[in-house]
Amino acid sequence: MKLELNNYFHIYNRTNNDELLFKEEGNYEYFLNQYQKYLSGYFDTVTYCLMPTHFHFLVKVVSDQYKSLQQAIATFLSAYTKAINKRYNRHGSLFQPGTKSRLIDDDSLTVITYIHQNPVRAGLVNTLENWHHSGYGEIIDLNKKQIVNQKYISEFFTSNEEFIEYSREILKTIKEDYWI
Fold first, then answer.
1. Cα 135 from Cα 99, distance rounded (Å)
2. Where are the alpha helices (DSSP H) in 1-135?
């Protein structure tokens, strides 16, 4: 995975064999706590979405310590896997090999909305507001998890209402090549 200082990347991975990544509600919070613990010094998080079998993060790389960053990502995923293995008496790898990263250079607002739309597109909820495991709730002040750096969104939108309307409209036009 190639990451570069001051650039934005969509980072994602999924489980092996579509196994549930989050087996109960508390797993979502634990995953985000581990993400913060291992990666907050390397990334400004623009947004995220945790799905039952995969995750998405849109981040800005804020550290040029690439070797340490690569190790921190591996440690984060390994620590989560070890906790799940211990808690649920399972063995082996939880994630597919090779967490993916995609450079986002000119279409970041579409990627933000794509990430937020995952639970709606998957039929898990009817509205973005009903999915409690994404940065959307933080951006529109539904929750205060403090994972998302609000400054990025405020550069493009003057109000939560403007962002909400944009998110609803773009769902109709999102490019299929973004869906992973």
1. 20
2. 25-39, 66-88, 108-121
Cα–Cα distance between 50 and 146 in angstroms, integer? 15
User: Cβ distance 9 to 101 under 8 Å?
Assistant: yes
pLDDT digit string, tens, across residues 136-177: 999 998 777 789 988 888 888 988 899 999 988 877 675 555
- Per DSSP, the three-state class of 104 is strand
100-104 and 43-50 beta bridge pairing? unpaired
Class of domain 8-178: alpha beta
Nearest to 132 by CA among 51, 76, 53: 51
pLDDT digits 0-9 by tens, 87-119: 999 999 999 998 999 999 877 888 898 899 999
With CA atoms as reference, report the closest residue to 48 among 135, 132, 110. 135
Report whether 139 contacts 160 (CB < 8 A).
yes
Q: For the whole prediction, is pTM greater than 0.85? A: yes
Ordered by start, the domain boundaries in the chain are: 8-178
CA distances from 22 to 9, 33, 104 (A): 23, 14, 27
Backbone angles phi, psi at 64, to 5 degrees: -100, 15
